[in-house]
Design goal:
- 74% of the residues lie in helices and 0% in strands.
- With 223 residues, the protein is mainly α.
- The chain folds into 3 domains: 32 residues, no CATH class; 64 residues; 105 residues, no CATH class.
- About 3% of the residues have low confidence.
Length: 223
């Protein structure tokens, strides 16, 4: 590292000497040296938290390693194993939470009444009719679901996407190239539906009308 630093330092001196009469070149060089990797980058709060945790883990495990006669390499190995165990535990917890969310979503579908065949209209017009019926009865949350479904079926009927019930909403969105106008029009529809259906976002008539306008804008080709 010392040799590398010395060589880089010599090269920088040559560059400065070669351009000392050119203020623009010197300013450009200063700009380059003020950014990483030459200038130290400030760590994010996540990186600082990880560093603090690893230091704490090292202090915690160092006496254990000494007590059982580990060398420095042995202590490092114990630390790595402990970190691996922690990561495995976090992954397990995340999977438990994800499973709970999936079960909650399925429970929501069960509570909404009805079998899958009854929940899933065959055409976009059937889904729109169901949405209007639910909205007129004040069930805006379920109306949003059917209006979203009508949008996906409408796109499917026109060959603009392939409707697959196994895909999540965002997986459906990712089947459309992100730089297209259709992607930009569908994205807020997906976001609103997820927020209302899975996030239990409270919905009233004006909010439902706003969602209806989003859907209408998609069909009419407006952003």
């Amino acid at each position: 590292m010392d040799q590398i630093a010395a060589r880089l330092g010599a090269q920088l001196e040559v560059l400065v000497a070669a351009h000392e009469d050119d203020p623009q070149a010197l300013q450009k060089l200063r700009d380059i040296l003020s950014r990483p990797p030459f200038a130290p980058r400030e760590k994010t709060w996540i990186e600082r938290a990880i560093d603090s945790f690893l230091r704490f883990l090292g202090r915690l495990l160092k006496p254990i390693g000494r007590a059982i006669g580990f060398s420095g390499i042995g202590e490092a190995l114990v630390t790595l194993l402990a970190v691996a165990a922690l990561v495995a535990g976090l992954i397990y917890i995340i999977r438990l939470i994800s499973g709970a969310l999936v079960r909650e979503a399925r429970a929501d579908r069960t509570k909404s009444g009805a079998s899958d065949a009854e929940e899933e209209p065959a055409t976009s017009s059937e889904a729109v009719s169901k949405a209007e019926e639910l909205a007129s009865g004040g069930d805006y949350r379920s109306a949003v679901r059917y209006l979203y479904l009508s949008t996906i079926l409408w796109l499917h009927e026109r060959g603009m996407l392939h409707y697959d019930r196994a895909l999540t909403n965002y997986e459906v969105l990712r089947t459309i190239p992100p730089e297209t106008q259709l992607h930009e029009r569908l994205k807020p529809v997906v976001q609103t539906f997820d927020k209302v259906w899975y996030g239990h976002y409270p919905l009233d008539e004006p909010s439902f009308e706003h969602f209806r306008r989003q859907v209408a804008g998609l069909r009419e080709g407006r952003l």
